[in-house]
Amino acid sequence: MIDTHCHLDASRFEPDRDEVLARAWAAGLHGILVPGVGPDNWEPLLAMSRAEPRLQVGLGIHPQLLPDLPPEEDEAHLERLDALLAQGGAIAVGECGLDGPSAAGAPMERQVAVLRRHLALARKHGLPVLMHCFRAHPALIELFKQEPLPEAGVLMHSYGGGVDLARFYIQKGCHFSFAGPVTWAEARKPLDALRVIPPDRLMVETDAPDQAPTPHRGQRSEPGYLPRIIEGMARVLGEPVEVLAQRTTENARRLFREAFPPPSR
Fold first, then answer.
1. Is 59 left (phi over 0), alpha (psi -120 to 50) or beta?
2. Radius of gyration of the chain (CA)
3. Rounded Cα–Cα distance for residues 94 and 132 (Å)
4. How far is the C-alpha of 96 from the C-alpha of 119, rounded, in Å?
5. What CA–CA distance (Å, rounded) separates 73 from 160?
6. pLDDT at 251 over 80
7. What is the pLDDT of residue 190?
8. pLDDT, tens only, 6-16
9. Which string of b and e fits 181-200 if b means at least 16 CB within 10 Å?
10. Which of 56, 152, 201, 209 sits CB 3.0–4.6 Å from 175 for a disulfide?
11. 184 to each of 176, 177, 213, how far by Cα in Å?
């Protein structure tokens, strides 16, 4: 199993990160993708990945971070991102995207401009994109209609939109990852969307430390909870857990060009 989105570098993991990883490997994971969210954590993430091959990283600027970054520095940050991607070590661009609630501090026009540059960098370096979109789908759809998407792919992280939105992103060639909310009692839209995702474009994530699955909801999430999410998805799809676990693993390894080592036998 591969957790395609886990913020392992988050401060909430500082007290026991080694124990969290030990539990993840014991739970059957053999890969974790840690997305970079801002310039300060790019180098530490690359160092983390060099030290442990089962930890792979993406590099990007999260839209929720933009209100804390001076707009006049956007170009410098993106040029540095370009240089780091050129050096290798990252297997994806992101986490990046659009965030409706952040528009008060980072207007959507700025968010779209920064995301456009992320897409260009992904095309330039042949890397897939880890896409965040929260309450901003109209703006993202408009951008996707204008902008060529990277041939390497776009992964809609923690997808929570409905079926109609999913069909648009499917038509654009996107991949989809689902997190803890698919196990929540009131989940509706993500479950309906899950049923229409092409099997070869489906992946799974924890988004830890956020969005913990049932029965851990409200607590800190961690990558070792990934089997719970797969179990929830398997129930919705009417598939054996083992089959879905194998398929989502194969899909992740294919999207990220075999960056994750195969499971040890």
1. beta
2. 17
3. 9
4. 9
5. 31
6. yes
7. 87
8. 999 999 999 99
9. bbbbeebeebbebbeebeee
10. 201
11. 18, 16, 7
> How far apart (Å, rounded) are the C-alpha atoms in residues 64 and 86?
25
Query: Which tokens in the block code for residue 233?
Result: 């998805």
| Binding region | 5, 7, 95, 132, 157, 207
45, 141, 144, 208 from 225: Cα distances, Å: 22, 32, 33, 9
Q: Is the pLDDT confidence value at 264 over 70?
A: no
> Is residue 247 classed as helix, strand or coil in its secondary structure?
helix
Whole-structure pTM value = 0.97
> How far apart are alpha carbons 86 and 154 in whole angstroms?
19
Identify the CA nearest to 128 among candidates 157, 103, 102: 157
The string of pLDDT tens digits covering residues 98-134 is 999 999 999 999 999 999 999 999 999 999 999 999 9
Binding residues for a divalent metal cation: 5, 7, 95, 132, 157, 207
Give SS3 for 106.
coil
Residue 160, amino acid: G
Give the residue from 256, 253, 232, 254 showing the smallest Cα distance to 244.
232
